[in-house]
Amino acid sequence: MTDQSPSELASRTTWQKHTYNPTSSPTSLERLEEAAFFGFRPRALLPAVIPAKLVAAELGLITQAAMEAALPPPDLCFERHGELFASVQRLLTLASALYPDEKELQNAFLRWHNTELGVGDMIKSEQQPKDEPGVNWTKNDGMLTAFRKYVVTLLECKSDTGGGEPLVQALCYYQQHYQNGEAWRRSLLHQADPLPSLVLLLEGPRLSIHAVWTLYQNRIGYTPLTPSYYLANEPGATANLWKLVAVLGAYQQAVCELTQRYTALERSSMQLCQRKAALRQAACLKRVGRAQVERPCTLPYCLLEEALGLEDVRFMGPRLLYTAMQKLQGGAAKRAVLVKLVEGSYGSQVHDAWHSVGAAPALYSATPVARGGSMVMVIMEHLRTEEGWMVLSEGLREAWGQQLPAAVKEALRSAHAVQLPCGSTAAHADMRSPNILVRMRTDEGGAGMPEVRFIDFDWWVFGMLVLLQIEGREWMLAGPAGTTCYPLLLLSPDVSWHPEAHDWHLLERDLS
Quick one: which of 71, 171, 343, 397 has the most CB atoms within 10 Å? Predict the structure, then answer.
């Protein structure tokens, strides 16, 4: 990437040309050739940068802890939390002290980390053996590894007046450890796994935790896992102390689980590694006509599970939506599927009920993933363009488009008549054209009949009123008006919503 050392690169703006910024000139393809850092600067973009909890389950421990209230845990007990509470108090004391130089702060933190947390020793560069074969040591502020091969944790330390961009410096040390992509090229194990690592940034009395992982070669993704916490020695500031207890407790567990992850990786079968490596590499290629072009992509860890039997996984977008072929258990048959990852919950009952009357594609599974089940992985039938399916707006331009308004309204009436297992009926809350798929089916007698399927069941409420848009007109069909409302702060400003569709506004009939 460059002949500059990490500290030299991070102290100048030259590192910025290695960030992925497709909106800048020159062309996106030329920018990709230079790019090595894929993260939030200047903007985190799918499919390279996905939520950390989907990169690796271990990372979700820290993001979950960072979101919790700064209060004592509900299961507080001395045996579980007392020792860590005291350790955090000692950390606040040492981090708030005055140090003559950066090295003194670095040494004090390393002593605290290695004696207090019990997760293994971070070793700074001058303590690392220089002549051990097969080990690529780098000049860093501290590194904890598994098998002296995989980076588990990196420390980057800056004094109050330290210069440069510490996160960039840490990312460069991660790259150097893996020989700027050479380890990836030579090792199937490196290709089979994103090699997630934690980065501790200690900037004077401030601590933050970040994640870094490998996309392919020397291309790496990164994201913050926590905000920057002041390690303030203020005995009365218990909220900050309890927050650090939660976050550092999660850090302890994440380090242990990452070490276990790399132990399992070392013991993985050749067949399993070949499968995962092939999936990850194929996902980084995008079909453009008959050619394939490079497109950095991080596949969510749950899509790589062998039990799912997914093949040829490709990012479809614009959200966390992927196409794939799925092998059916007990045979060689395959089916085309869409895999969608949604935050919170998914309307599985509604989706299944509507599919039972032919108003939705088949739903194969909806499984909680990520820590605490905070996301749902939805696998459903893929209605492909090569099978004639298109969005409603395209269908209206076809020769048979005049049949669609009546067909869509009839399909929606059938769906609204279906009772759910709980005895209630349900309705979709976003019936814009992108969520209505149509095609013309010809029967044995040669007569054409439109088929209609509704998708995107993130939006649903029992008895909710629905907005249906066809040919610029709005039909309000379904449940009781004036009793339900859209959720707060969830409506995208980039979507042309009905004038009365606002967060927290009641849904009402408008047939004008």
Answer: 171
Here the tokens at position 272 are 């399993």
**354 backbone dihedrals φ, ψ, rounded to 5°:** -70, -35
Neighbour tally for 409: CB within 10 Å: 15
CA distances from 511 to 91, 247, 459 (A): 64, 52, 22
Residues forming a β-bridge with 334:
327
Q: Which of 281-285, 297-301, 449-453, 458-462 has the lowest mean pLDDT?
A: 458-462
Name the pTM for this structure: 0.88
Locate the DSSP E strands across 255-303. 285-288, 291-294
Tokens of 8: 């030299």
Which region, left, alpha or beta, applies to residue 179 given φ > 0 means left and ψ of -120 to 50 means alpha? left
Nearest CA-CA partner of 468 in 424, 504, 427, 440: 427
pLDDT tens for each residue of 202-244: 999 999 999 999 999 999 999 999 999 999 999 888 899 999 9
**Residues 45, 20: contact at Cβ < 8 Å?**
yes
Q: What average pLDDT is seen over the chain? A: 85
Beta strands (DSSP E) in 71-205 are: 143-146, 150-158, 197-203
Tokens in use for 512?
């004008």
Res. 49 pLDDT band, cuts 50 70 90: very high
* Count of C-beta atoms within a 10 Å radius of residue 349: 18
Residues comprising the chain, all counted:
512
First and final CA of the chain: distance in angstroms?
A: 61
* Domain map (residue ranges) of the chain: 52-266, 385-512
Instruction: For residue 384, report the phi and psi dihedrals to the nearest 5 degrees.
Output: -90, 150
Radius of gyration of the chain (CA): 26
Tokens 């959720």 correspond to what residue?
487
- Tell me the two tokens of residue 345: 């919950």
C-alpha distances out from residue 214 to 197, 394, 446, Å: 9, 39, 54
Instruction: Say which amino acid occupies 176.
Output: Q
Query: Residues near 191 by Cβ (< 8 Å), separated by ≥ 6?
Result: 184, 216, 273, 277, 280, 281
Sequence letter at residue 241: L
Both tokens of residue 229?
A: 């916490």
CA 306 to CA 262: how far, in whole Å?
A: 18
What region does 273 belong to: left with phi over 0, alpha with psi -120 to 50, or beta? alpha
222 CB neighbour count, 10 Å cutoff: 23
Compute the distance between CA of residue 358 and CA of residue 430 in angstroms, rounded to an integer. 19
Alpha-carbon distance values, 159 to 156, 164, 166, 211 (Å): 10, 11, 11, 22
Q: Which amino acid is at 187?
A: S
Which residue has better confidence, 445 or 425? Answer: 425
What tokens does 230 get? 């002041």
